[in-house]
Amino acid sequence: MKKNILVIPGDGIGPEVTTWGKAALEKIAEIFGHEFVFEEALMGHAAIEVTGEPLPDETLEKARQSDAILFGAIGHAKYDNDPSLKVRPEQGLLKIRKELGLFANLRPILLFDELLQASSIKPEILRGTDILFFRELTGDVYFGEKNRSEDRNTASDLMIYHRYEVERIAHKAYQAAQQRNKRLCSVDKANVLESSRLWRETVQEIAKQYPDVETEHMFIDNAAMQLIKNPKKFDVVLTANLFGDILTDEASQIAGSMGMLASASVGESTGFFEPIHGSAHDIAGKDLANPLASILSAALMLEIGFGLKEEAKLLVDTVDQVLKEGFRTHDIADQTTNRFKVLGTAEMGKLVLK
Amino acid sequence: MKKNILVIPGDGIGPEVTTWGKAALEKIAEIFGHEFVFEEALMGHAAIEVTGEPLPDETLEKARQSDAILFGAIGHAKYDNDPSLKVRPEQGLLKIRKELGLFANLRPILLFDELLQASSIKPEILRGTDILFFRELTGDVYFGEKNRSEDRNTASDLMIYHRYEVERIAHKAYQAAQQRNKRLCSVDKANVLESSRLWRETVQEIAKQYPDVETEHMFIDNAAMQLIKNPKKFDVVLTANLFGDILTDEASQIAGSMGMLASASVGESTGFFEPIHGSAHDIAGKDLANPLASILSAALMLEIGFGLKEEAKLLVDTVDQVLKEGFRTHDIADQTTNRFKVLGTAEMGKLVLK
Ligand SMILES: CC(C)[C@H](C(=O)O)[C@@H](O)C(=O)O
Ligand SMILES: CC(C)[C@H](C(=O)O)[C@@H](O)C(=O)O
């Protein structure tokens, strides 16, 4: 199989971890005899520094021509500390999601047995958890009109949904539920928000086309609680952009660490694969980041992007094996015991490749 | 001390639990020689059934004339299942918050040692946690303009903040932080939302007036994760209406159960005291609800509403004592051991009064 892959390292720990996601893809190509052709491009603060823009036209052009994109992370302390800056790294990520029509963000909560202890949640609560989030990615308050009054004393963002936006992601989520445990929980705030009422109404309609899937509707506040109280009760979770952002980060504690979770954004064309962690500028360049989420993002690319199940499985199994052998990066090491061999980013990356 | 207290039982388990919050206030009045005069009023589904409106004028009038309000819960399955209904119970709660100018919702995460085991989070992660949430309560996407297109295919809610709204709650939160551990974490989504950028800018300004308090800014997705990863690192958390709704429900797992958490809404006049749990219609009328959050709401009324610290402490200590003696309601009982004496709502209520 021949594929063109665009690598966008981005900001902070992005470049360090993406190195290993890319290396994993190269290794897989070698083992299975595929041809993966790589290109690189800039986005975020890294792109602003060079071109003045968070998403240069050239990057977007390359993205459109590629078969899949491996992305690192975005964001920089400078912008976080100064809310008045007009050009911001995150605009690059939002724009590429919109331009490529990546309306469905899939975030599987993959639970490695070996990491049950790394979570702040009790192992007996976690064991057996298997959740697949469908987060809507090109609508909501992320993309609605933004306003700042002239005196700068009033600011607003429009939370807005169109029925077709809810329908298309709902179909994807229901289809996935049919392949899994046939339960779907749709999360909204329909007791307060009109956009959530449209969301709920639409999901109720779509649900009728999937009578084999059991549907539940839950308010976001309750969901944020239930997710840690009893994660096992969830199978597929379907939710809006903002609520999905919050819930999936929270859910990373189920997997032991944010450093373990990958996500796939799909929609109209090219798939986009990235860790769910952020740019973590505080640890960037210190060889402390966990490269496993990037390697697992590569696995998602193989599976969801290219339909290469066996190849994806080899990567996931290798990660599992490395954890079984007691190797850990800092974020997933239990500092109170010395049962683990704690590795830096590069050592961990190399080990998985071996 | 003479005080007029309005009791609004509301919907679902509201009436069952509020009975005990009120009884606790009566008992305190008797012990300390205060005169508490009670009135009752309708709100939510309970009010719609009788008057057609979720907040009858009479209730609002009584609320304005009272010195404090003890509220139960709001909401009903009928409306949750039918997003198209125009008159909804929650509108009553939102309207009374707005009309009384209750812009600051204080949610202390009170951790009873005895309940460390009741949480899904590991006791060693929880121990020592002491968080006070300040949730903004009369702005945000809760109160911004709502719209539904004529063809009903597009729906929106305006997420909007004015600088003065952020300022007034920020001052309250900073003043509280000065009395506590002098750390304040402000939660927003300033990397994406304009309203959050106004929020962050404003908090940065106010922070300068409280140089003795250490300020941190955190994105909501990260906060949802950090809250369960390392709850001890938080002291005062300041956030917007929607984010506060989500984070405080999530934080209820720190306290072992939602059935244990009380909240105080204050602002321009009369204080409003309520459990943070919802109407839980699935268990309503079954003597299964936990009355402790209502009793602790009564304690907050005594302390924050009336400045009666000793009286409040007696209530909190009594709850603690009852837990120490091994008594539990269903939500906080560990079903796997029989170390606990599991009680119904009424038995638990009576026990605390004794
Ligand atoms: C960086 C930020 C804009 C982004 C988001 O909020 O979508 C990130 O948190 C994510 O979840 O991918
Ligand atoms: C019932 C609902 C409108 C309310 C809210 O979202 O504010 C509740 O969840 C709360 O937290 O008090």
TrEMBL record, chains A, B:
**EC class:** oxidoreductase
Pathway, per Swiss-Prot/TrEMBL? Amino-acid biosynthesis; L-leucine biosynthesis; L-leucine from 3-methyl-2-oxobutanoate: step 3/4
Location of the protein in the cell: Cytoplasm
Q: What protein does this entry describe?
A: 3-isopropylmalate dehydrogenase
Q: Which InterPro entries does the UniProt record give?
A: IsoCit/isopropylmalate_DH_CS (IPR019818), IsoPropMal-DH-like_dom (IPR024084), Isopropylmalate_DH (IPR004429)
User: Its quaternary structure?
Assistant: Homodimer.
General function of this protein: Catalyzes the oxidation of 3-carboxy-2-hydroxy-4-methylpentanoate (3-isopropylmalate) to 3-carboxy-4-methyl-2-oxopentanoate. The product decarboxylates to 4-methyl-2 oxopentanoate.
Q: Which PANTHER family match?
A: 3-ISOPROPYLMALATE DEHYDROGENASE
Q: Which terms under GO biological process does the entry name?
A: L-leucine biosynthetic process
Source organism of this protein record: Pedobacter soli
The coenzyme or cofactor needed here is: Mn(2+); Mg(2+)
Gene name, Swiss-Prot/TrEMBL = leuB
